[in-house]
């Protein structure tokens, strides 16, 4: 079931179109990467999902129904630009934000004590936010985002500002939330984290969605029939083998072996390459090289931009 | 969801009320006001009581022998002889503080007051007024052959007494003192001005704070922008009312406590004199409480003035608070806010400039029009009110203000909703008008 369905959403601002007929759907229980270059329209889309702004046309379905004001109680949102009241005490501020999301005082207090302890900021409960380090403020903000146990979480660049240790803590927390059944939209430029934790992605560029789907499917869709083959020693015969059907892209000498990246012709199978190599060399490893999300991102965006320059 | 507005009000209220600056200002101001009322009287009384002077009168004319009346501070003794010797004797042996020598001079009264250490304050004027009176009575008797007592009676009989009476449209008459109206009106006007300037600009700062530290995006993902705006405006209004009430209670408390401790202290002060004058003008001074006396005085009742004050205080604050909130949402930082607050602040400053001329002519053309324009009416109408305003004018002014307030809320909500999420660019007036047109 889809927790979110965005249908034909268009949003115009006075001098430009921020979203142009965008549709996408997010399945329940997945981590969904929302990707795109700066200014593509991601933030506008996120704000529409949060009902901070409203689309000019199109609809958003939340759990199958048109999204309503009350649904914000089931949504958690961590904006890219973090902000807290600087003079307010950390605990008090967290209590306030939790109550705005509909928690009663008692529940909010109990859950906050647990979370503050877990994130190692309990000692700062009574200190004004401005005295907290940036990392602690980030933690505080993340806690307030998830405290009401939303079924749908929107995280905009959640890792920015975290040191590697805390980033890892955050990553584990996100994966734990996913296990508990939370659906998460992750908007980020950090492609490594997309590869690591996202199940599905959508790529938005110049106000349009240009790509959407399961990460593995997308990688398969854009794979270039490149295989990495590792043999025990450098084998000159292999070089001669690679003629018409096979193209040697790269050769790397490792400590006890040599690695070749080879592209095969579109009508051939991996087994054809193996069959061709086997008589000459002792194969120690063989795998298909799939494009990284980083490569797909860059390629897709550049291709799209080129085509659209032609149109103009 | 409704609950959220209360949460926001509570936060806006408690964070402000707990601030040190709030507590200090709340306690300090009444003390200051009380001090302004009480201190000058206290100072004068202290200095009068503190110094006692023994005065030796050496009267060469022999007109004033044994005529000066002793007061609390001054005791008079009389002697005659060589002035230089008497002076030396008085000061060297510390017998007297001052020696007052009245010279026998054919060209009129001439006298010297000798002193060594300090001239007791008030002694000179005391001597002058006593001398004038004694000499006047002497002359009446000796030169015109009139008994001083008879002269006093004559003076009383011929004293004129003018009462100012205002006649309203229905022919009802009311005794009135223009001076009193002016003071009450000006006080109300200034008070509303200060409340607006202090608390409405807090709304501006609050909106700006939330926008510039970016918490606003988190907030409006939980609550509607209109709830956030309403919560802020109402919360700050409650802070204002709290502070106002504490001020009133403390000021009245301190002044009356001082009044109880030293009853004569306040009788001399200017404020009480004016109130007493106003009250006695009704001619029904005795047997009525001060409140009733004050009530009898005004062309419209005191209760009505209080109610109108409250009305214009609330509506005036709300108008400016919503306008300031909209202003705060379109700018990025306090330093750019100047050019946008200007158009909102000008009517306020205009009102304060107009107060003196309105209060002297509370029913003129100027007063009429500015008490109808909703941006100036909360201040100007309050200035006019104590002098009496036709009921249709008052109701029109209130109606226009409420309609304008509704318009402001509508416009501010729209501008605010868009403005708080706009960063990094200066929004032209044209663009802001475009936001208004969008549904």
Description:
The complex is a heterodimer of chains A (312) and B (439). Chain A is of the alpha/beta class and 312 residues long. Chain A has helices at residues 42-49, 90-100, 105-118, 134-146, 164-179, 191-197, 215-221, 236-241, 270-277, 293-311, and strands at 2-12, 17-27, 31-35, 57-62, 65-66, 75-78, 152-156, 183-187, 200-205, 208-214, 226-231, 246-253, 258-264, 283-289. Chain A has two domains: 2-220, P-loop containing nucleotide triphosphate hydrolases (Rossmann fold, 3-Layer(aba) Sandwich); 224-289, Alpha-Beta Plaits, CATH 3.30.70. In chain A, the strands form three sheets. A six-stranded mixed beta sheet of chain A has the order 6-7-8-3-9-10, sandwiched between helices. A four-stranded antiparallel beta sheet of chain A has the order 2-1-4-5, covered by helices on one side. In chain A, strands 12-13-11-14 form a four-stranded antiparallel beta sheet. The longest helix of chain A is centred in the C-terminal third of the chain and has 19 residues, at 293-311. In chain B, a hairpin with a 6-residue loop joins β3 (98-103) and β4. The model of chain B is unreliable at 276-289 (pLDDT under 50). Chain B contains 17 helices and six strands. Chain B has helices at 2-17, 20-50, 83-92, 123-143, 148-157, 178-212, 215-219, 225-261, 263-267, 270-281, 290-297, 302-330, 337-360, 365-370, 377-384, 391-419, 429-437; strands spanning 53-59, 74-79, 98-103, 110-115, 165-167, 173-175. Chain B is an alpha/beta fold. Chain B starts with a helix and ends with a helix. In chain B, α1 (2-17) crosses α8 and α2 runs parallel beside α8 (225-261). Chain B has two domains: 2-41 and 178-437, no CATH class; 51-157, Periplasmic binding protein-like II (D-Maltodextrin-Binding Protein, domain 2, 3-Layer(aba) Sandwich), CATH 3.40.190. Chains A and B meet through α2 of A and α1 and α7 of B.
């Amino acid at each position: 079931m889809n927790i979110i369905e965005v249908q034909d959403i268009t949003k115009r601002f006075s001098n430009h179109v921020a979203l142009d007929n965008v549709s996408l759907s997010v399945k329940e229980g997945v981590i969904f990467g929302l990707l795109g270059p700066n200014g593509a329209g991601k933030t506008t889309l996120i704000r529409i999902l949060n009902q901070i702004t409203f689309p000019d046309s199109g609809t958003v379905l939340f759990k199958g129904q048109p999204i309503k004001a009350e649904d914000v109680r089931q949504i958690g949102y961590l904006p890219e630009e973090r902000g807290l009241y600087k003079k307010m005490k950390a605990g008090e501020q967290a209590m306030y934000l939790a109550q705005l999301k509909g928690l009663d005082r008692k529940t909010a207090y109990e859950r906050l004590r647990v979370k503050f302890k877990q994130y190692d900021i309990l000692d700062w409960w009574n200190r004004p936010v401005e005295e907290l380090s940036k990392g602690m403020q980030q933690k505080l903000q993340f806690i307030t985002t998830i405290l009401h146990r939303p079924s749908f979480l929107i995280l905009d660049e959640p890792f920015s500002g975290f040191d590697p240790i805390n980033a890892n803590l955050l990553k584990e927390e996100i994966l734990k939330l996913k296990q508990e059944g939370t659906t998460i939209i992750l908007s980020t430029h950090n492609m490594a984290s997309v590869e690591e934790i996202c199940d599905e992605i959508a790529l938005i560029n110049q106000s349009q969605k240009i790509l959407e789907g399961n990460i593995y499917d997308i990688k398969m869709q854009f794979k270039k029939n490149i295989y990495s083959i590792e043999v025990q020693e450098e084998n000159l015969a292999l070089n001669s083998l690679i003629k018409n059907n096979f193209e040697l892209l790269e050769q790397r000498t490792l400590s006890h072996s040599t690695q070749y990246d080879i592209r095969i012709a579109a009508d051939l199978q991996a087994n054809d390459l193996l069959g061709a190599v086997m008589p000459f060399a002792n194969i120690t490893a063989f795998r298909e090289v799939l494009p990284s999300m980083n490569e797909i991102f860059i390629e897709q965006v550049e291709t799209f931009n080129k085509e659209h320059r032609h149109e103009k | 969801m409704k609950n959220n507005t209360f949460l926001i009000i509570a936060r806006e209220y408690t964070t402000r009320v707990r601030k040190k600056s709030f507590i200090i200002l709340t306690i300090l101001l009444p003390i200051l006001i009380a001090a302004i009322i009480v201190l000058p009287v206290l100072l004068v009384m202290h200095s009068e009581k503190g110094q006692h002077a023994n005065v030796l009168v050496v009267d060469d004319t022999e007109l004033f022998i044994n005529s000066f009346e002793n007061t609390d501070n001054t005791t008079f003794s009389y002697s005659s002889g060589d002035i230089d010797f008497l002076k030396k004797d008085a000061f060297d042996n510390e017998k007297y503080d001052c020696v007052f020598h009245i010279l026998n001079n054919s060209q009129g009264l001439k006298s010297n007051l000798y002193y060594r250490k300090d001239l007791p304050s008030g002694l000179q004027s005391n001597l002058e007024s006593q001398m004038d009176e004694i000499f006047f009575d002497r002359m009446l008797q000796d030169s015109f052959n009139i008994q001083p007592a008879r002269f006093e009676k004559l003076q009383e009989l011929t004293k004129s007494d003018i009462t100012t009476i205002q006649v309203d449209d229905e022919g009802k008459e009311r005794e009135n003192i223009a001076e009193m109206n002016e003071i009450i009106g000006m006080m109300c006007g200034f008070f509303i001005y200060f409340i607006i300037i202090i608390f409405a600009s807090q709304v501006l700062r609050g909106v700006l704070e939330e926008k510039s530290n970016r918490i606003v995006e988190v907030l409006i993902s939980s609550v509607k922008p209109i709830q956030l705006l309403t919560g802020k405006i109402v919360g700050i209004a409650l802070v204002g009312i709290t502070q106002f009430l504490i001020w009133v209670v403390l000021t009245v408390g301190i002044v009356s406590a001082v009044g109880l401790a030293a009853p004569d202290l306040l009788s001399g002060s200017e404020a009480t004199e004016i109130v007493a004058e106003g009250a006695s003008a009704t001619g029904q001074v005795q047997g009525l409480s001060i409140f009733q006396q004050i009530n009898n005085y005004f062309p419209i009742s005191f209760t009505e003035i209080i109610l109108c004050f409250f009305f214009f205080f609330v509506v005036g604050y709300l108008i400016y608070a919503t306008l300031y909130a909209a202003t705060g949402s379109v700018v990025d930082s306090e330093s750019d806010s100047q050019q946008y607050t200007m158009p909102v602040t000008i009517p306020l400053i205009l009102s304060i400039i107009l107060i003196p001329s309105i209060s002297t002519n509370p029913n003129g053309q100027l007063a009429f029009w500015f008490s109808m324009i909703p941006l100036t009416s909360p201040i100007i109408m309050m200035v006019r009110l104590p002098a009496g305003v036709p009921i249709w004018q008052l109701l029109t002014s209130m109606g226009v203000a409420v309609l304008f307030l509704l318009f402001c809320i509508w416009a501010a909500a729209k501008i605010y909703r868009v403005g708080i999420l706009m960063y990094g660019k200066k929004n032209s007036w044209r663009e802001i008008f475009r936001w208004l047109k969008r549904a």
